[in-house]
Amino acid sequence: MAHEGPGVRVAALIPAAGSGTRLGLGPKAFVEVAGRSLLGRSAAALAPHVDEVLVALPAGLELPADVTARTVTGGDTRQTSVLALLRATDAEVVLVHDAARPFLPGAVVRAVIAAAREIGAATAALPVADTLVRAGPGGDWGTLTPRERLWAVQTPQGFRRDVLLAAHEAALTDGFAATDDAGLIARTGGAVRLVPGDARLFKVTTPGDLALAQALAPVWDAGGA
Ligand SMILES: Nc1ccn([C@@H]2O[C@H](COP(=O)(O)OP(=O)(O)OP(=O)(O)O)[C@@H](O)[C@H]2O)c(=O)n1
Ligand SMILES: C[C@](O)(CO)[C@H](O)COP(=O)(O)O
């Protein structure tokens, strides 16, 4: 059963306040791939599907020239940046998407919004395809981990805003830190729908990821990816 009617307002919330330590090129959302910032690419992919776009920026920085959005100042962690974004909108449904995932297919956005409207919380994710092992204390092969039913979580993640805000405020009260927003919902016992994501939705985290993004961008921009 749908929670919301057809006229529900949807906001895209983009945490873009990270420092990009692992990439090493300064604030990562501003890094350009084939002439467009990572943030610009993410915002442009979301904008056609939502009523407004909000971006959390590092303190003292303004939006890159290729982005139009309302802004808030982010926090010291992704979690506090998302909380600042949540407090800045009254949309009924929110889509949280990393600025650092620039190749976002419209079909994934639509599927996450539909699932969030249906059950209140959803995330893009991909079934794990590699063999998984937990390293031993010395860093060598430790324990084989069955990959059956294991998914790698991506963004966008979609939520009823009231549900996600309550989960964030409970986490703040408890001093609980999660690496994503769906994890905060699961912590409170809420259901989260796994929506098939996309291999092209990888997060630009390391220099190797940036090289992949630079290779993919011309094909993506030409509509051929
Ligand atoms: N204090 C923070 C930290 C992260 N993010 C955002 O959360 C997303 C995912 O974070 P990540 O890829 O880890 O980015 P960084 O924190 O910038 O990277 P690093 O950990 O290498 O410094 C990014 O869009 C990033 O800008 C944020 O808004 N506020
Ligand atoms: C939200 C996320 O992208 C889902 O995979 C991920 O948890 C972010 O992790 P990071 O260490 O903040 O990049």
From TrEMBL:
Feature type site, description Positions MEP for the nucleophilic attack: 147, 203
GO MF terms held by the record: nucleotidyltransferase activity
Residues at the site labelled Transition state stabilizer: 22, 28
Keywords: Isoprene biosynthesis, Nucleotidyltransferase, Transferase
EC number: 2.7.7.60
Transmembrane stretches, start-end: none
Top-level taxon of the source organism: Bacteria
Matches recorded under InterPro entries: IspD, IspD/TarI, IspD/TarI_cytidylyltransf_bact, ISPD_synthase_CS, Nucleotide-diphossugar_trans
Pathway: Isoprenoid biosynthesis; isopentenyl diphosphate biosynthesis via DXP pathway; isopentenyl diphosphate from 1-deoxy-D-xylulose 5-phosphate: step 2/6
Known catalytic reactions: 2-C-methyl-D-erythritol 4-phosphate + CTP + H(+) = 4-CDP-2-C-methyl-D-erythritol + diphosphate
UniProt record similarity statement: Belongs to the IspD/TarI cytidylyltransferase family. IspD subfamily.
NCBIfam families: ispD
Function in brief: Catalyzes the formation of 4-diphosphocytidyl-2-C-methyl-D-erythritol from CTP and 2-C-methyl-D-erythritol 4-phosphate (MEP).
The protein, known as: 2-C-methyl-D-erythritol 4-phosphate cytidylyltransferase
Organism from which the protein derives: Deinococcus radiotolerans
Taxonomic classification: Bacteria, Thermotogati, Deinococcota, Deinococci, Deinococcales
Gene label: ispD
